[in-house]
Design a protein that fits this description.
By secondary structure, the protein is mostly beta strands. The chain has a single domain, classed as Porin (Beta Barrel), CATH 2.40.160. Helices cover 7% and strands 59% of the residues. The chain has a 14-stranded antiparallel β-barrel with strand order 2-3-4-5-6-7-8-13-14-15-16-19-20-21. A two-stranded antiparallel sheet has the order 9-12. A hairpin with a 7-residue loop joins strand 20 and strand 21. It is elongated, with a radius of gyration of 24 Å.
Length: 434
């Protein structure tokens, strides 16, 4: 009964999440490209420096390398759901501001089809767009009046995935993710004057995106002795060229900056609209994501220690995204992670059952602005708290930085905290006693 309820709840929650599961962020760098890409995985991955390619665990879902799904027990069912929160500080040489966001992180289920075939279904955010930028300059012809430009961004891309993982041999596994990427990017530019008698000009771009994509994965696992293990992983993500439509519109409105609301709130209440639309148009748009190649290696002591390293590369330098081609670079990503469980089979001391995790990541970034590549780095930490059997609560946190205050750029400092519940149960298992 519990297993059936979990499956029904998973499907219902998945449907709700597809409809309402848009993620948010606050970063001026999401003005460019498709925004802030989220490829950190679930709670275990995030706590271990976003490690994924060579990571293979029987009681966790690691969809970033679909070959890892086959580590699951042939009689098991896994349900995983998580949420995250972010506190971010933006700073320049003279200004700073802070934001907090809380958002849906992921939902997934995983189960066996055959003894050699495993599958997983889920939804995760793929990228996030969110920014609020204001510039002001004196209008020479009007002497004391300033022209105020407000730039707002909102939206993102979601990913629904179907993973299939196959045990080729006892040591070799292969997998494929079939994904549907969809979402919208909304961009607003508002020109106003600090004169209550003037009007505001509002330009809106709404870009809808959709595309099927795939990821391929391999993992080779072995043992050095009865005590030590190793896993070598390889993952490839296909190039994505979106089917994108851009709707643009321009209209005049009363000068709403004097109402102390932003453009999104203003459009929601529609109180001060004028009835004159200046222009509106729909056109095709070119947005691409390059192919990505990842390699990873994990080793350690069985049931006690895992440590690993991932390296991945995406060449954005020849990619066209939002009709911009000269601001993208090759993106290199480095991930280090470790997990330590004192005694997985301890009977008395609960702290010996806990999995302690930590990691580090460094990303060169795919944007180059003012001849500076917008890199990021972070330290991560977390714990896996066992509840019963292989069910666990995974807590994770991280501190990171992106960008710089030099050359007129913006530095972002962010703290991320999250929790995900991993429910582990057995399918097709009949009790001998009622």
């Amino acid at each position: 009964m519990i297993k059936k309820s979990l499956l029904i709840f998973s499907l219902l929650f998945l449907t709700i999440s597809i409809t309402f599961g848009q993620s948010i962020t606050n970063s001026p760098y999401t003005y460019y490209g498709i925004g802030e890409i989220d490829r950190g995985g679930f709670g275990m991955n995030r706590a271990m420096g976003n490690l994924s390619t060579g990571l293979r665990k029987p009681n966790q879902i690691n969809f970033l390398n679909p070959a890892s799904i086959s580590a699951q027990d042939t009689m098991s069912f896994i349900f995983d759901v998580g949420v995250s929160g972010t506190t971010k500080k933006l700073s320049t040489n003279s200004l700073n501001s802070e934001y907090q966001n809380f958002y849906f992180d992921h939902l997934a289920i995983s189960f066996p089809i055959q003894k050699w075939w495993f599958t997983s279904i889920g939804i995760v955010p793929y990228s996030r767009v969110g920014y609020n930028i204001e510039t002001s300059e004196l209008v020479p012809e009007l002497d004391t009046i300033n022209a105020i430009n407000n730039f707002y961004g909102n939206g993102g891309i979601n990913q629904v995935f179907l993973s299939n993982s196959f045990k080729i041999t006892k040591k070799l596994s292969a997998g494929i993710n079939l994904s549907y990427l969809f979402g919208s990017l909304e961009k607003y530019q508002v020109l106003s004057f600090d004169n209550p008698q003037s009007y505001s000009t509002i330009d809106i771009e709404e870009i809808s995106l959709r595309k099927f994509a795939y990821d391929l994965g391999l993992q080779y696992s072995g043992t050095i002795s009865e005590k030590y293990f190793y896993t070598l992983g390889l993952a490839y993500s296909s190039k994505v060229k979106f089917n994108a439509n851009k709707t643009t519109s321009t209209f005049m409105a009363e000068n709403f900056i004097y109402f102390d609301i932003n453009i999104l709130d203003y459009l929601a209440i529609k109180t001060y609209y004028t009835d004159t639309i200046t222009s509106s148009a729909v056109s095709n748009y070119n947005i691409e994501i390059p192919a990505k190649l990842s390699i990873g290696f994990t080793t350690g002591i069985k049931d006690k220690l895992s440590l690993g390293f991932d390296f991945s590369m995406q060449d954005w330098s020849k990619i066209k995204a939002l009709n911009s081609t000269n601001i993208f670079s090759k993106d290199f990503n480095y991930n280090f992670g470790i997990e330590y469980t004192p005694n997985k089979f301890a009977l008395r001391n609960y702290l010996n059952l806990v999995s302690y995790r930590a990691g580090f990541y460094y990303n060169t970034g795919y944007l180059t602005l003012n001849n500076t590549q917008i890199s990021s780095y972070g330290i991560t930490f977390g714990v896996g708290l066992p509840v019963t059997n292989k069910t666990s609560i995974n807590l994770f946190g991280s501190y990171g930085q992106r960008g710089t205050e030099n050359l007129g750029l913006i530095k972002e400092e962010f703290w991320v905290f999250g929790i995900n519940l991993t429910l582990y149960d057995f399918w097709f298992y009949k009790s001998k006693f009622e």
